[in-house]
Automatic annotation (TrEMBL):
GO terms for molecular function: hydrolase activity, acting on ester bonds. This is GDSL esterase/lipase. Transmembrane segments: none annotated. It comes from the Eukaryota.
Length: 332
């Protein structure tokens, strides 16, 4: 691996990314949806200090992952008209803010559901074959890493968290939709899949603001739900690997790394973990995080969260480094 990177070669032929706003690099820019981040102050610390559609002040964990794998560019947003032809030889990003395994959530916000993201991936395969030939395309597909992240257990009600206050939180569960997604991805040729766990949902600034009952501590019942979901995800992963012996499926834990950043910020080089950088840092995200938001911090690198849902670039760097270590079997 070191030899390949020394020669300027990526560790894998391509990186394909699925998920929601945590990984969206601009697909929602092309959609009729309010869930967008293509305006300031989003992207203020990214290249050229311009918003791209990333729900962050700078790079996402998936961007850092691409860098860690030796790529010199990031998988482009597939819905961008420029993300065609030779531009997808090293992969593509299909993630869409407000997406997830719940079709109703994506439909409500006019986002691209994971099932539709798979359809886009099928189109991408055909485009790869046209550009590089079917044999080369097949080699790229089988050798690529497939990274997926989604707040998959978040019900529609929680997606309204910055619009309304809800007092109940349905217990997350793995559904047939989840299983179908991974089986279909395998059927399309994916053999190296990394799926992230749910983060500590109760530690998101918006969660604490709305469900914390006045406390500034993480909401334990939301975190417990995430832990239960992650336990089932691990079980599902083991079952899938039994069914498909040639499948390398790794569950990438982001729960504990992000929990550590939130509960021990100063030990990890951060100043603030309860509030996000944008606006008041309590509830703002997407359209509520804008250039008129009062109170936006000057230095986002001191904050674990950029807006009330999404980590800052600095936090994403920490998470991506942990993902690389946890997912070493995907590239070995």
């Amino acid at each position: 691996m070191v030899f390949n990177m020394a020669k300027g070669q990526p560790l894998v032929p391509a990186l394909f990314i699925f998920g929601d706003s945590v990984f969206d690099v601009g697909n929602n820019n092309q959609l009729y949806t309010i869930v967008k981040a293509n305006f300031p102050p989003y992207g203020r610390d990214f290249k050229n200090h311009m918003p791209t559609g990333r729900f962050c002040n700078g790079k996402l964990a998936s961007d850092f992952t691409a860098e860690n794998l030796g790529f010199t560019s990031y998988p482009p947003a597939y819905l961008n008209l420029k993300a065609k032809g030779k531009n997808i030889l090293n992969g593509a990003n299909f993630a869409s803010g407000a997406s997830g395994y719940y079709e109703s959530t994506a439909k409500l916000y006019h986002a691209v559901s994971l099932s539709q993201q798979l359809e886009h991936y099928k189109e991408c395969q055909n485009e790869l074959a046209e550009v590089t030939g079917r044999s080369n395309a097949s080699s790229i597909i089988s050798g690529a890493i497939y990274l997926t992240f989604s707040y998959s257990a978040i019900p529609v009600s929680f997606r309204h968290v910055f619009l309304s206050t809800f007092t109940s939180w349905p217990l997350p569960r793995l559904s047939k939709t989840d299983m179908k997604f991974f089986k279909n991805l395998y059927a399309l040729g994916a053999r190296r899949i990394g799926v992230t766990t749910l983060p500590p949902m109760g530690c998101l600034p918006a969660s604490i603001t709305i469900f914390g009952s006045g406390s500034n501590d993480c909401v334990s019942r939301l975190n417990n739900d995430a832990v239960n979901f992650n336990r089932k995800l691990n079980t599902t992963s083991q079952n899938l690997k039994k069914w498909f012996p040639d499948l390398i499926l790794v569950v990438l834990d982001i729960y504990q790394p992000l929990y550590d950043l939130v509960t021990k910020p100063s030990e990890n080089g951060f100043f603030e973990a309860r509030k996000a950088c944008c606006g008041t840092g309590l509830v703002e995200t997407s359209i509520l995080c804008n250039h008129k938001s009062i109170g936006t911090c000057a230095n986002a690198s001191e904050y674990v969260f950029w807006d009330s849902f999404h980590p800052s670039e600095a936090a994403n760097k920490v998470l991506a480094d942990d993902l690389l270590i946890a997912g070493i079997s995907l590239i070995s």
